[in-house]
Every structure is written in structure tokens, then in C-alpha cells.
Amino acid sequence: MTREKVKFYVEKDRLGVEACMILMSLSIVFRLIGCWGLWRDKSYAVTQIALPVFSALLLIAAVWLLGRRALWVSFIPVTLGAVFFIIKAFGFESRLQMVLCILLYIAVIALYFCTVFGILHTKWFLVALFGLPFLYHIFVEDLPALQNTTNPVTFAAGMQEMGVLCIMLGLFCLSFSMKKEVTVVEEPHPAKKPVVLHTNHDEETEDNMKKDDEELPQAAMEMQQAVASESSDKQELQHEATSGESEKEQQLLRDDAAEEHPEDWLEGEDESET
After folding, report:
1. pLDDT tens digit string along 109-124?
2. What would the pLDDT profile of 135-161 be if each residue is shown by its tens digit?
3. Residue ranges of the domains in the chain?
4. Rounded distance, CA 38 to CA 25, Å?
5. Beta 2-9 vs 179-186: how paired, if at all?
């Protein structure tokens, strides 16, 4: 029994992987510039500055050092980045946009996990998942915002948006550069349980065994009784033998006495006759 084991990996000298690391580095720069001076708020500094910067650095290290051997390690920084985007989505004014974005980021975590751990045998779900939102940001949100003269985009907001675009485009390049390695694994066949067939002959033998079990105690009782009777007969025979031997001994003693003292023996007989 064989099974295919799928493993995804990247080679760090590929153009897409190098583009991913460059874009992640740029996202750190844009994020620090856009959030400059906003780290006084500790919660904002941790969730909106430190978290994306740390996840980007961790992703660069994972891809550069372990992209060929263990790409699944990159799931950790991708998950941290998705958490950053989920926290950011709670600040949206539109409830519908907030819910859709949170669902999108949860889908990113699930699909990335299934891909790098070999559960899904294709990378194209990830490519579409990172590419389509990037196009949405460019054509639906960013271009209309740049054309809005009444409420123009601030420099800080523009830098933060550039950082987000770099993250999305970097993950798109990473997923596009993934290669698949298929290994055939042989699995042992499961042991089959023996099938027991019950026939009429087996039933008859079982009945006979039951009857034998019932007759065994009776036979044992009869054997005990026979043994007891034989032992009693032996005791009687021994008793008779011993009594006969004692009589013979007495008779011999009498004969010896008669030979030694015939006169006494005769007088005893006369007395007995009288």
C-alpha cells in the first residue's frame, strides 16, 4: 500500500524568493516611517508596529535559512502577520468590510497551513488568495483614494498602505515560487482478523464436550466408591489372614508344650473330659 507525501519548498536564489525578502524588508521601512511617533500608545505600538515588524523579520529568516528544508516554519510569521491584519480590521468604519477582511485573514492562515504541511497538493489557492486582495487594494481602494482631492491621503497613511501592499505582494511572490516534491511512502497492510466459521459439526462437538463435562463428576464419584470398596475388601482379607496366622501360632505352641511335658498335657485333657 503506497501513499504520496507532498512537501513544498523554495530555493533562496530564485527571483520570486529574493523579491519576497526585498518586499518584506521594504514593508518594515514603510511601517516604521508611517507609524513614526505613534509608539507612545503601548497597545498600538505592540499590535501595529512591533508585531508586523517582527513577523516580517521572522519570515525573511525562515525563508532564507529553512526555505529548502522546512518551509513549514514560515507558518509562524504568516500567522503573526494575519493576527496583525485582524487587529487592524477592527478599526474599519464599515462592519461589512471588517467581517470580510477578518474572514479573509482566517482563510489565509488555514490555506497556508494546509499548503506548507502538504495537506493540499497545490499552491495555486495561495497564489490567488494573495494576488486578488492585492489587486483589490490597488484598483478599488488606493487609486480612488489618490484621486480624492477633497480628503487627500496623508503621508503617514500612504506609508502604512505601502507597507501593507509590500506584505501582500511579498507573500504572492513567495507562494508563486514554491516547488512541490512528491515522495511515495509505503505503508504496511493492516493485519486481517481471522474469520471463524461455525458449522454443524462444531456445534455437535460442543454439545458432546458439554455432555462429557457433565459425566466427568459422576465417573469420578463412581471411581472413588470403587476405590473405597477395594480398600475395605483388602482390610478384611488382611484381618482374616492375621487371625488365621494367630490360630496357627497357638496350635504350634500347644504341640510344643505337649512334646515337652506329655504328662501335663494328658492331665489337662483328662480334666477337660471330666
Report:
1. 999 999 999 999 999 9
2. 999 999 899 988 888 888 899 999 999
3. 2-186, 200-273
4. 20
5. antiparallel
